[in-house]
Amino acid sequence: MNPFFSILSLAYIAGIFLFADSPVVSDVAAFNPYSLLHIPLYGILTFLLILSFSPFKFRVINSGNPTNSTNPINLSRLPCNEYVRGEMRPALCSVETTTWGSLFHWDSTNSINLLIPGLIALGVAVADEIHQAYIPTRNASITDVLLDIVGIILCMAFIMRIERISWFSKKIDFLRRTTLEK
Predict the structure, then answer these.
(1) Alpha-carbon span 68 to 71, nearest angstrom
(2) Would you tell me the crossing angle of helices 112-133 and 142-181 to the nearest 10 degrees?
């Protein structure tokens, strides 16, 4: 789990519950026909939850190639060892994040990676509507939950589309390199 996005997700959820009883909501209601702002509200929450569940990995590459085609960003240099002519010698290696080529670096065909954040966002949506039922100036609505589900599904579809494009672009780049080398 990514701690930064986990804390950001929790703060966002707290904001949803705290602003439910705020006078800001009644001011925004004039510009929010049919409660359509629920769609981006829960789409953003789902996106933050997906980012909080995404792994944040590092890999070590040889210092002779400080940048490569998949990750042109060199973050820092750390000492490591490498084999040179059969013996171990100290060398400088680069530590790079693996989040450059793809957005989340998990198997995008495995839907469980999107299902868990989506279910958490859905649970927050239902809990928020139950919470609104006990606020005197607000009311709970099944329509709001349905709009929340639309936002969650749109966010997950957007993420799946980005992953598919990223996977496809990696395959095209590989094919271009292999045909240019011949």
Answers:
(1) 5
(2) 160
